[in-house]
Specification:
This protein has 503 residues and is an alpha/beta fold. The protein has two domains: 288 residues, Aminopeptidase; 134 residues, 3-Layer(bba) Sandwich (Glucose Oxidase, domain 1). The protein has an eight-stranded mixed β-sheet. An eight-stranded mixed β-sheet has the order 3-2-9-5-6-7-8-4, sandwiched between helices. A hairpin with a 2-residue loop joins strand 2 and strand 3. The longest helix is centred in the C-terminal third of the chain and has 20 residues.
Length: 503
């Protein structure tokens, strides 16, 4: 999943309780429509413009979902992934927000959409960006591998040296470092050491700083990297993380030295928005994916895969399709640092404009190399730790599940509807949402491996948020199945909003 966590909790997709009664709900493969009436990129003809102007647009073509699903494919999405990797390689190896690589990716998406008959806008927004250089921790003279948390302040030039202070003092505290009392008696200027868990990392850092800590070390709950951020929390101090085993070796009072080289800037970035000319403007179906990567790499699965799949669908749909509802495509910026682009977009809508959005569909990581096939649990029927979404989210879950089955997936599972990706701002605004996901840092179960193949005990994406998230990190079967399912669901809601109540 895209963004670094701000909390001590863990995202855990599990097998849900749903009984999928969709064996006959396959996506039919039928002949494509006649030649498109709108411009299209070479080799990417659209499925056909609406005939008869407003009448076709008002009613929609009931055959659109099947034709769109048949028109798209993993190969088309993969071609865009190849371009994203080239753009990253030509621009310091990434497409992170605020970088030339991100701007180049925006230009590629915009150019492709305009060639497919869309009018495109790139609304700008202000964003705090973060970059990190050196991160070094030495304890009792021995180096300890450490990672800086996003939006951590830098240490003073040359670093800082202070004794470690393990917090809280009570063993197995259920809320470690989450209350001011956890730092009572800590020596002034110490480096506070706290376990991950329960509250946001920013809260732990702020409370430790208020109690006089010079810095904070967060111990992860497993022996793995901790992709995390302090977010916008004020009053934080330099904060880094260590693995579970490294943390277990730390002792109260040990002398430690910490160097964190970080830079925080205020910058302007852009989203990309494209909308069909046809369809009812009072009930708009929005489909989105975040376009930015983390600074560590090209981000080809996270989230080049969702962005490329969405671009393939937009190309094949074209700017003037026979839809009943307008379809709005969105590529969000700055998801990786806190859902900034999508949040700014939703916050900038008037109440009337929010009411015109019938549904939001989100696609973040749809080509994981050891894939799971997950659908956001919009009604919380699986009890995965999220919450039920606004009315209509349950319909999105059902339609997307049926679409995956129709694309050849055996028994899709639920995943927590926890707002971790760009659908979060939409559900907070009362807009129903849904989406697909092939997994990130969690590990595939034996039952999932038996059902879908792959390797049990290995994470769905071992290259999540790392430099190896490149073309070699994509499972092309998963990509093909997901782009087909995405097209089917987008097409269905574009012509039929049954089950999505008007707000």
């Amino acid at each position: 999943m895209g963004r670094a966590s701000t909390t001590g909790g863990r995202y855990r997709p599990r097998l849900g309780n749903r009984l999928v009664r969709v064996a006959a709900a396959g996506v039919a493969v039928v002949a494509l429509a006649a030649c498109a009436d709108v411009p299209a990129a070479p080799g990417s003809a659209t499925i056909g413009a609406a005939g008869g102007g407003g009448q076709a647009a008002a009613q929609g073509d009931p055959g659109l979902p099947q034709r769109l699903a048949a028109a798209v494919g993993g190969d088309g999405a993969y071609a865009h992934l190849q371009q994203f990797e080239k753009l990253a390689d030509a621009n310091a190896g990434n497409r992170a927000v605020g970088t030339p690589g991100y701007d180049a990716a925006v230009d590629h998406v915009v150019g492709t959409l305009r060639a497919s008959g869309f009018t495109v806008s790139t609304p700008s927004f202000e964003v705090r960006t973060f970059s990190a250089g050196d991160a070094r921790l030495t304890v009792a003279g021995a180096p300890v591998t450490t990672e800086v948390l996003g939006f951590s302040p830098a240490t003073p030039p040359g670093g800082l040296t202070a004794p470690l202070s393990l917090r809280p003092r009570t063993p197995q505290d259920p809320t470690p470092g989450c209350e001011a009392a956890d730092y009572t008696g800590m020596p002034a200027g110490a480096i506070a050491v706290v376990e991950r868990g329960t509250c946001e990392f920013g809260q732990k850092s702020r409370l430790a700083g208020a109690a006089g800590a010079a810095a904070v070390i967060v111990i992860n709950t497993e022996d793995a990297a901790l992709p995390a951020t302090l977010g916008d929390t004020p009053g934080v101090v330099p904060t880094a993380s260590v693995t579970k085993s490294a943390g277990a070796a730390l002792r109260d009072g040990q002398q430690a030295s910490l160097v964190l080289d970080t830079t925080i800037r205020q910058q302007t970035s852009r989203n990309v928005i494209a909308e069909t000319t046809t369809g009812d403007p009072t009930r708009v179906v929005v489909a989105g994916a975040h376009l930015d990567s983390v600074p560590e790499g090209a981000g080809i699965n996270d989230n080049g895969s969702g962005s490329a799949a969405l671009l393939e669908i937009a190309q094949k749909l074209g700017g003037s399709p026979p839809v009943g509802q307008k379809v709005r495509f969105a590529w969000w910026g700055a998801e990786e640092i806190g859902l900034v682009g999508s949040t700014k977009y939703v916050e900038g809508l008037s109440e009337a404009d929010r009411a015109r959005i019938a549904l939001y569909l989100n696609f973040d990581m749809v080509g994981s190399p050891n894939p799971d096939y997950l659908v956001y649990d919009g009604d919380n029927s699986d009890g995965l730790g999220g919450e039920a979404g606004p009315p209509g989210s349950d319909t999105a879950e059902r339609v997307l599940t049926e679409a995956l089955v129709g694309a050849g997936v055996n028994g899709p599972e639920g995943t927590a509807f926890d707002g971790r990706s760009d659908y979060g701002p939409f559900i907070e605004a009362g807009i129903p949402a849904g989406g697909l996901f092939t997994g990130a840092e969690e590990r595939k179960t034996p039952e999932q491996a038996q059902k879908w193949g792959g390797t049990a005990g290995q994470s769905y994406d071992p290259c999540y948020h790392t430099p190896c998230d490149r073309l070699t990190n994509i499972d092309r079967t998963a990509l093909d199945r997901n782009v087909t399912a995405m097209a089917s669901a987008i097409g269905r809601f574009a012509v039929d909003l049954t089950g999505v109540p008007q707000r």
